[in-house]
Amino acid sequence: MQLCSDEDLSTAKPLMMFDVHGVAEGTQPGQRHDMDHLGYIFHGYSRVKGIAGVIVTDGEYPSLVAHQLLSKIMDEFLTKYPRAAVDPSPTENSYPLSAPIKEWIQKYDNPENADSIVKIQQELDSTKIVLHKTVPYPAPPHP
Predict the structure, then answer these.
(1) CA distance 44 to 62
(2) Is the pTM of this model over 0.90?
(3) 106 vs 73: CA distance, rounded Å
(4) What residues does each domain of the chain span?
(5) Residues 62/115, Cβ–Cβ less than 8 Å
(6) Architecture of domain 6-134 in CATH?
(7) Which of 50, 56, 73, 130 would you label with 140, given CA atoms 20 to 30 Å apart?
Protein backbone atom coordinates (compact mmCIF):
# COMPACT_ATOMS: atom_id res chain seq x y z
CA MET A 1 0.00 0.00 0.00
CA GLN A 2 1.26 3.43 -0.86
CA LEU A 3 1.70 5.84 2.01
CA CYS A 4 -0.74 8.72 1.60
CA SER A 5 -2.57 11.44 3.44
CA ASP A 6 -6.07 10.83 4.75
CA GLU A 7 -7.76 12.66 1.84
CA ASP A 8 -6.37 10.00 -0.52
CA LEU A 9 -8.25 7.19 1.18
CA SER A 10 -11.56 7.88 -0.69
CA THR A 11 -14.23 5.26 0.03
CA ALA A 12 -12.40 3.56 2.91
CA LYS A 13 -11.87 6.87 4.69
CA PRO A 14 -14.81 6.84 7.16
CA LEU A 15 -14.03 3.34 8.47
CA MET A 16 -10.29 3.96 8.53
CA MET A 17 -10.68 7.30 10.29
CA PHE A 18 -12.78 5.57 12.96
CA ASP A 19 -9.95 3.06 13.48
CA VAL A 20 -7.32 5.81 13.38
CA HIS A 21 -9.13 7.70 16.13
CA GLY A 22 -9.46 4.48 18.15
CA VAL A 23 -5.74 3.72 17.89
CA ALA A 24 -4.78 7.33 18.68
CA GLU A 25 -7.05 7.49 21.73
CA GLY A 26 -6.13 4.00 22.93
CA THR A 27 -2.37 4.48 22.81
CA GLN A 28 -0.95 5.56 26.16
CA PRO A 29 1.33 8.65 26.22
CA GLY A 30 4.91 7.69 25.44
CA GLN A 31 3.85 4.36 23.89
CA ARG A 32 3.65 2.87 20.41
CA HIS A 33 0.83 0.57 19.35
CA ASP A 34 0.13 -1.47 16.21
CA MET A 35 -3.34 -2.76 15.38
CA ASP A 36 -4.24 -5.11 12.52
CA HIS A 37 -7.68 -4.55 11.02
CA LEU A 38 -9.03 -5.79 7.69
CA GLY A 39 -5.54 -6.33 6.26
CA TYR A 40 -4.29 -2.88 7.24
CA ILE A 41 -1.88 -2.14 10.06
CA PHE A 42 -2.52 0.99 12.10
CA HIS A 43 0.80 2.13 13.59
CA GLY A 44 0.13 4.55 16.46
CA TYR A 45 2.41 6.64 18.61
CA SER A 46 1.31 8.91 21.45
CA ARG A 47 3.72 11.53 22.69
CA VAL A 48 3.84 12.66 26.29
CA LYS A 49 3.36 16.18 24.92
CA GLY A 50 -0.30 15.37 24.30
CA ILE A 51 -0.36 14.53 20.61
CA ALA A 52 -0.78 11.21 18.85
CA GLY A 53 -0.17 10.11 15.28
CA VAL A 54 -1.22 7.10 13.23
CA ILE A 55 0.11 5.73 9.96
CA VAL A 56 -1.92 3.12 8.05
CA THR A 57 -0.03 0.58 5.94
CA ASP A 58 -0.58 -2.82 4.41
CA GLY A 59 0.40 -5.91 6.38
CA GLU A 60 3.77 -6.27 4.64
CA TYR A 61 5.10 -2.79 5.42
CA PRO A 62 7.75 -3.02 8.20
CA SER A 63 6.53 -1.69 11.52
CA LEU A 64 9.97 -0.28 12.38
CA VAL A 65 10.00 1.87 9.24
CA ALA A 66 6.42 3.07 9.78
CA HIS A 67 7.30 4.16 13.31
CA GLN A 68 10.46 5.92 12.10
CA LEU A 69 8.37 7.95 9.65
CA LEU A 70 5.73 8.62 12.28
CA SER A 71 8.38 9.95 14.68
CA LYS A 72 9.80 12.25 12.00
CA ILE A 73 6.36 13.59 11.11
CA MET A 74 5.48 14.20 14.75
CA ASP A 75 8.81 15.98 15.37
CA GLU A 76 8.14 18.20 12.34
CA PHE A 77 4.57 18.86 13.51
CA LEU A 78 5.70 19.90 17.00
CA THR A 79 8.36 22.16 15.51
CA LYS A 80 5.87 23.84 13.19
CA TYR A 81 2.92 23.86 15.61
CA PRO A 82 4.14 24.14 19.23
CA ARG A 83 1.84 22.62 21.84
CA ALA A 84 0.58 26.05 22.93
CA ALA A 85 -0.51 26.84 19.34
CA VAL A 86 -2.45 23.62 18.76
CA ASP A 87 -6.24 23.99 18.67
CA PRO A 88 -7.81 21.51 21.13
CA SER A 89 -10.63 20.79 18.66
CA PRO A 90 -9.16 21.14 15.18
CA THR A 91 -11.14 20.75 12.00
CA GLU A 92 -10.05 18.41 9.22
CA ASN A 93 -7.01 19.77 7.35
CA SER A 94 -6.33 22.38 10.06
CA TYR A 95 -2.67 21.46 9.87
CA PRO A 96 -1.65 20.82 6.25
CA LEU A 97 1.34 18.66 5.38
CA SER A 98 4.53 20.61 4.87
CA ALA A 99 6.97 20.05 2.00
CA PRO A 100 9.47 17.93 4.02
CA ILE A 101 6.68 15.62 5.17
CA LYS A 102 5.50 15.07 1.59
CA GLU A 103 9.08 14.21 0.61
CA TRP A 104 9.39 11.77 3.50
CA ILE A 105 6.16 10.05 2.48
CA GLN A 106 7.52 9.59 -1.05
CA LYS A 107 10.84 8.29 0.32
CA TYR A 108 9.19 5.94 2.79
CA ASP A 109 6.79 4.57 0.17
CA ASN A 110 9.52 2.01 -0.50
CA PRO A 111 10.76 0.95 2.96
CA GLU A 112 13.99 -0.32 1.43
CA ASN A 113 14.92 3.28 0.50
CA ALA A 114 14.10 4.59 3.94
CA ASP A 115 15.79 2.12 6.26
CA SER A 116 19.16 0.46 5.74
CA ILE A 117 18.27 -2.39 8.11
CA VAL A 118 15.26 -3.32 5.96
CA LYS A 119 17.42 -3.18 2.84
CA ILE A 120 20.07 -5.44 4.39
CA GLN A 121 17.41 -7.88 5.63
CA GLN A 122 15.89 -8.12 2.14
CA GLU A 123 19.34 -8.71 0.64
CA LEU A 124 19.99 -11.46 3.21
CA ASP A 125 16.63 -13.07 2.46
CA SER A 126 17.32 -13.12 -1.28
CA THR A 127 20.84 -14.53 -0.66
CA LYS A 128 19.37 -17.34 1.46
CA ILE A 129 16.94 -18.20 -1.33
CA VAL A 130 19.77 -18.37 -3.86
CA LEU A 131 21.86 -20.52 -1.51
CA HIS A 132 18.98 -22.93 -0.89
CA LYS A 133 18.51 -23.32 -4.63
CA THR A 134 22.18 -23.81 -5.50
CA VAL A 135 23.78 -25.65 -2.58
CA PRO A 136 23.07 -29.40 -2.66
CA TYR A 137 21.90 -30.88 0.58
CA PRO A 138 23.49 -34.13 1.73
CA ALA A 139 21.28 -37.15 1.55
CA PRO A 140 20.00 -38.35 4.91
CA PRO A 141 21.85 -41.43 6.24
CA HIS A 142 20.27 -44.77 5.40
CA PRO A 143 19.66 -47.14 8.29
Answers:
(1) 14
(2) no
(3) 13
(4) 6-134
(5) yes
(6) 2-Layer Sandwich (3.30)
(7) 130
